[in-house]
Amino acid sequence: GKNLHISPFLQLSPPMVSTLEDYRVEVILDRAFHKPGDKVYVKGYVQNVKLDRDILSPVAHATATIKVTWKRNEEAASYEVKTNQYGAFHLTLDAPEDSTLGDTSLYVSGDFFSGSTIITLADPRIPTATLSIETEAMIAQIGEPLAFDVTVATYTGGVIPNAVVKGKWTVKRARPYFYTPGFYYGFQAIQEQSTTNAEDESGEFELTVDQDGLATYSLDFDSLLVEPLESGNTVDISLEYFSLSKELLTETLSLPVAKSELSLSLKSTAVGRILPGYPFGVFASIQDVTKDGAPADSTLVTLQLFEWDGVTAPTEKSNGELEFDSAPVQECSFTSVNGGTNAGCELALPALGRYLLAGSINDGNKFVSALLPVGATESEWQESPLSSVNGISFVSDKNEYSLGDTVTLTYYNPFLESRTLVSYGNSSPKYLVESSSKSGKTKLSFTIGDECFGGCNVAIAISAPRGSLAPLSVSVPTSSLFDYDIPGAVTSIVSISVPVPKRELDVSLSTFQEIGTPSGRAGLVINLSKDNQPTAGEVSVFVVNKAVLDLKPHPISSYASQLASRYVRAHYSIVDSRSELALEEGYSASKAAFNRRLLENPWAYANWLLRPTTYARADVDLTDEEFYSRFSSQITDFAYSYAQYYSDGGPEFDGGFESAPNAPPGAPGIPGDASDPDRSGLGDDGFGSSAPVAVRTDFVVTPYFLGSQSVPASGRVELEYDLPDDIGTFEVRAYAIDSNSNFGVGTVDQVSRRTLSMQSAAPRIVRTGDEFLSGVTVTVHDPEFIGEVTVTVSHVCQLLKLYSSQSQIIGFKKGDGPKLINFHFLSVGTGDAYLSFTAQLNGIPADAALYPQPVLGQQEPVYIATSFAISEDSPSTQGFVLPDALPYSGTLNVDAAVGRLPAVNALSALTFASAQVSRPSSLGLLSSLIPKLAYESYSVTGETSDLASEIFSQSLKKLASYSPSNCGLQYSDYQHSRCYTSLRLQAYGLWTLNQVSGLLSNSESSLVDTFTSQWTSALEQELNRQASVARGFGSKFSDFNSLAFVYHALGHGWTSSQQSTYSGDYSVDVLIENVDKLSVDAKAALVQLLHRDNAEPVLRSQFLAEITNSFRIQGRTAYLTNGGQNPANLACGLTLTSYILADDSSPLVEKLANFNGQEQPEGLTYRPSYGPEQLSHFITSLAQYDSWKGNNKPDLQVDVSSGGNILLSHKFTSPSAVSHETSFFEDIADPEAIQFSALGSGEASVLFGTEFVPLEINTELIDRGVRVTKVIQRINPATGEPEGPSITEASIGETVAVTIQFTIPDYSPSLIIVDPTTAALEPLDENIYESTGGTDPCP
Fold first, then answer.
1. DSSP letter string over 217-281?
2. Are 49 and 19 a contacting pair, CB within 8 Å?
């Protein structure tokens, strides 16, 4: 009850950065996507930024490494670059032909800097036409039709008349994208919030452009919609046009729905529920809806305060004015600036009760209004009593400042007497102290200098003595924990923005001539300037086909804004001791309520709070009934359907399957008379001469890249380059930087065309036996032309037959746009056919082009194979018949190898990788010891063997840090306060040491002896501990899986040296008694133990037979599982060794060795991962298998023949040798049964297979272990999802969804699904186009 004045304590923390220096790296590519096989042009910049002042400098003459992973699951390709004096670098990359489609990262790294960008690899069809939609409307006006213009044109500027465009409109009911949290728009604040959003609505339409390629269309949503448009909705319009050259073009338009182009929203300056008599102002946020909610210019706002019943809404007149049933109790007006950053008016609620604050502005045509409810009734105050005074909002007079400006902060001070402390700045903060003897609207002003460079935070603390708040005009229910007259304290942090000017360089471009000629010369003029003055610098130029840039947007670099440093402001921490004050009355009341409720109901947990909370009523302010009601909850779970949460989401497979794979092209090559076309004899415009026209063949997306060009002090440089043979528009981008690190970019378009231009209109997919139409679109770039164009096709070659006339004539009249000319073909072979088109305009050669036309097989080659082991004692004869195949598509492939050393090498590399990471696990270190043991058995020398020895020594030494003196082996080398002992880890470690014991030097032997003693002791202690704990719970030791590996490591006859009363609980006899409780891995370990130690002969044979019966057998492999489909890799490694110890020569053993050493084919997105322990047993079992079969030192002659045909003959004297032979079906005379024979020591693994494209396609379902079904469905435009039955025909330009379902009965990590797309369907590249619906496609 005493008057206390406690000053706040302000603490200034330094900037939250580790350094005041930073590096900005920018990597720029020529375009947004590249096809495999393309060149990727790269430009990069590296700049050093001093964060505490505006100083930048180029990172000059620095070496950087660039890495790109072109193919999934393969190592990244590495390139080296060096920056020039401007901190810039450039290079050209070649994307491999077999690059994986999708996104991959390009990483740049130097000694102090790093950066990255995305390279998208895709293969879409490149468009030749453009589709655009424009409207003068900035919003979708409620009650008014929405009109827009649609234009269809070519990339060379020609119009496309009479084009049919399909459209779809969608009304989205979501809140406006410019919504500002805390503000209320229109009637939003008094409307009941619906628990479900209104359904989006959509519809379709179709329009045809006129002779000028233009159409005007309007949508009347009043007649189209079920529910009317509302402010805050969004109208989306999407268009599709299927061009003459068979590209699907799309364009979209999105407009916000509103009554006005301006939006008004209100927010009180007082934080929380406003007390009667408490002074407050109002923020009026005014936003321009047409500019994504950008702040509007200064606008007059009128505010009125009305008494309100909490239900009745005002009436809105046709001009937007609001009409109330009563007069306002208060009103005022002010000018809102910067979209509402300033607060206006000074209001106060006259009494308890609800009030409605109405604000309005005039947009020049009508009024725009918003409502904000304030105040609360007495009953509402009783339900939530007063627990704090309203917070204060501090508002700056501007959004941005410059150094030297005066900052004015406005706030509504509730205290009659107060002092204010202001601190601002970064490294050298300044302070301001002001006193005030009145409440109400108050301003704080101060001038900012270098301490606010780049922006700064302002810390504000208001301190007021007891009783400084104006007395309440009415009594308000108050929390027992709150004292209205307590000493006042308000703290806040305000951010001041002081932008650093952008380092922008002006780059202007102009072309020598706007329209160039394919394969002709083009020129470019570049001018650099800063502040309207010429400047020297460096420039890089990209010239890219604009159709590609439009297909996947490639935004211009914004590096200049990045160079305007992002300064980190100093952070203030304000600690106020008054926040810890508590009332004696509140303490006593809480204590009494707590004790009373504890005695009445000890199960009801109460919070004994001493200070009020703003988020909920304190327990002491609740009645006992209200308090106990908090502890009631529903205890009955009512039934529900899984359909509420899950849906099948996929199409029904009701037939319509396809199972014909597709075939790669052969290589007949370009016809001889077209491989070196004559490119001479035509003037610059390609028109007006009777001489032969140059044949266009060189089609390039990025015809010109200039990595670096110095620009002199004049700021001007001229460049020349060759245009490609493409017809279209090319966008020229020039990026420039000067010695002061100012950066800029300029663009200009360069058109390339002839007076008459042809562009390919060929299907991308054609298969053997297809009849198809392929041709060109012809555009005459002379709007006054009237006449005839003759198009001739030649060079059909042996792959295609022409079913139509070789020449066609088409007439043009004035103003005609592009016209399509098709020729009828039949494909009779596979490979790359080339079609040469020549166009004559009124009999004069005008254009010629050579386009490839790939012809694919009807399906992928079929591959049928078998494998078996061949030795001197086990020759083999296999029956064989050559299948019917397309000419020269069939081959016999014979692969033979002796030994598993290649597999051992691959597996060893995995162990090396796990041991060479920065912080390897002890598991990884242990597994890296095993390869040296394997290489000793093969007696091989060389780089790999030397690496194994080196890593062996390193890993053995590292293990010391994983074995603290008071612990056993730990998984990591982190220092822990207590030990964790894993039985499996100790067992694996001891087994590994036992395996490599014969490879140790004297010093290594001493280290291993220490490990063995230490790990064994820890293992025995842990066994006793677990047995003791189990006994304590009235049970016995039960971790038999771990126990199996303990005995596997220490031997069948092992007994613990730490004798205890629990030793019998984990004896080997107990383990064998509980064999049925073992996992497949643990059982395999037990079986190997019994065979290795020659123990329990009857049981070990029985257990091995049980494991044998559990194998899953495939064509050339066999494996065990953990009960599901996935292999039990550890058990497979252990069991192979058991078979060897048992001298079991059944075919199953060779299949298991094949599994343990199998390699994964390239191109898979998933590869099985092996753990270190699995790798160890794979490697040891394979090495033991080779020693058992004599493959570690082979001397074996292998011959494979069919009649008089020698298919393979090779003598193997090395465990790493591999032989491969391929024969075409046509080269095998009178094929008979295949004879396989071997002479000498060792065992050869032979893989015999045929690969061919069937002569005829089987239309029946073929199910050879993999069942594949496929459906093609139409897309529902309303949902974007595939629906309905599988279809066999579709309209041109229609989008369909292809769904493939496959079922496999067994584990198959190397399964690849190939979908042979039909010639009628153009795949939409998911890396470019947005998905049309359904789930994401499989990779």
1. EEE-HHHH-SS---TT-EEEEEEEEE-TTS-EEEEEEEEEEESSSEEEEEEESSBSSPPTT--EE
2. no
Q: Which helix (H) or strand (E) covers residue 970, if one does?
A: none
Amino acid (1-letter code) at residue 1295: T
Q: What is the pLDDT of residue 439?
A: 84
Q: Is the pLDDT of residue 422 over 50?
A: yes
Q: Which position has the higher pLDDT, 850 or 344?
A: 850
pLDDT tens-digit series, residues 915-932? 888 789 999 999 999 999
Question: Minimal CA–CA distance to 334: which of 300, 285, 368?
Answer: 300
> Is residue 738 scored above 90 in pLDDT?
yes
Q: What are the pLDDT digits (tens) for 479-526?
A: 888 888 888 888 888 999 888 777 889 999 999 999 999 999 999 999
- Backbone angles phi and psi of 926, in degrees to 5: -65, -45
Higher pLDDT, 376 or 1263: 376
Q: DSSP letter at 967?
A: S
Whole-number Å distance between alpha carbons of 1191 and 1181: 13
Nearest C-alpha neighbor of 1157 from the set 1171, 1136, 1187: 1136
Share of the chain above pLDDT 90, in %: 40
Torsion 665-669-671-675 (CA) sign: positive
First to last CA, the chain: 74
Cα(889)–Cα(875) distance, integer angstroms = 30
Of the candidates 168, 146, 252, 159, the one whose C-alpha atom is nearest the C-alpha of residue 214 is: 159
Mean pLDDT of the chain: 84
Question: What pLDDT shows up at residue 1159?
Answer: 59
Kindly state the tokens that stand for 222: 């009043």
- Reported residue count of the chain is 1339
**Helix extents (H) in 959-1079:** 983-995, 1002-1032, 1040-1050, 1068-1073
| Residue 183 near residue 285 (C-beta atoms within 8 A) | yes
Tokens of 143: 């009650």
Residue whose tokens read 């509302």:
230
DSSP sequence for 787-824 = EEEEEEEE--TTTEEE-S-SEEEEEE-TT---EEEEEE
Cα Rg, the chain, nearest whole Å: 41
Average pLDDT over residues 1194-1204: 86
DSSP at 415:
B
Q: Could you tell me which residues come within 8 angstroms of residue 790 by beta carbon, excluding any fewer than 6 positions away? A: 807, 808, 809, 839, 840, 843
* C-alpha to C-alpha distances, 153 to 23, 129, 162, 168, 352, nearest whole angstrom: 45, 6, 11, 20, 67
- Residue-wise pLDDT for 592-605, tens only, equals 888 888 888 877 76
Tokens of 1077: 């409780």
Q: In the prediction, which pLDDT does 564 show? A: 67
Reply yes or no on whether the pLDDT at 103 is more than 60: yes
Question: How far apart (Å, rounded) are the C-alpha atoms in residues 162 and 991?
Answer: 81
Q: What is the pLDDT of residue 431?
A: 83
Strand order in the sheet with 353-362: 330-336, 299-307, 353-362, 367-376
Q: What's the CA gap between 406 and 591, in Å, rounded? A: 52
pLDDT on residue 643: 34
- Going by C-alpha positions, the residue among 1262, 1281, 1283, 1257 that lies closest to residue 1271 is 1283
pLDDT in tens, 400-412: 899 999 999 988 8
Tokens coding 23: 């590096």
CA dist 44 and 26 (Å) reads: 6
Q: Which residues have a Cβ under 8 Å from the Cβ of 745 and sit 6 or more positions away?
A: 507, 556, 557, 733, 734, 735, 736
